[in-house]
Design a protein that fits this description.
Layout (H helix, E strand, L loop, with lengths): L1 E6 L2 E4 L4 E9 L1 E12 L6 E6 L5 E3 L7 E6 L4 E6 L8 E12 L5 E7 L3 E6 L1
Parallel strand pairs: 2-11
Antiparallel strand pairs: 1-3, 3-8, 4-5, 4-9, 5-6, 7-8, 9-10, 9-11
Length: about 120
């Protein structure tokens, strides 16, 4: 019912930049929240950036000042602009979307969906 398509990962040298995108499509009634997580080898998946209930942004301490999350509600898309990348940013990045989908015209169902993941590799 909901498809998430991520793009923008790749290989970059330390100090470089990348921009990730995650577009949601399907029977979406409303998007309640969107965010980015990452999982490095041997580590648990962790929040990188997201939005608070008041609509402001929040970031992991390790990326503050370097990463910027934004969203385009008209396109159901969330972005992650990553700058001053470091080798320790190497991970698979996943978008996470909390959406309400149409079950019937009068009934919606809320659920959380994950993107397929996109690899970001930062070389030193």
């Amino acid at each position: 019912q909901v498809q998430l398509v991520e793009s923008g990962g790749g290989l970059v040298q330390a100090g470089g930049s990348l921009r990730l995108s995650c577009a949601a499509s399907g029977s979406i009634r409303s998007i309640n929240d969107m965010g980015w997580y990452r999982q490095a080898p041997g580590k648990q998946r962790a929040l990188v950036a997201g939005f608070t209930s008041s609509g402001s942004t929040e970031y992991a301490d390790s990326v503050k000042g370097r990463f910027t999350i934004s969203r385009d509600s008209t396109k159901n898309t969330v972005y992650l602009q990553m700058s001053s990348l470091k080798p320790e940013d190497t991970a698979v990045y996943y978008c996470n979307v909390d959406v309400t989908v149409d079950v019937t015209p009068l009934v919606g169902r809320r659920g959380v969906y994950w993107g397929q993941g996109t690899q970001v590799t930062v070389s030193s």
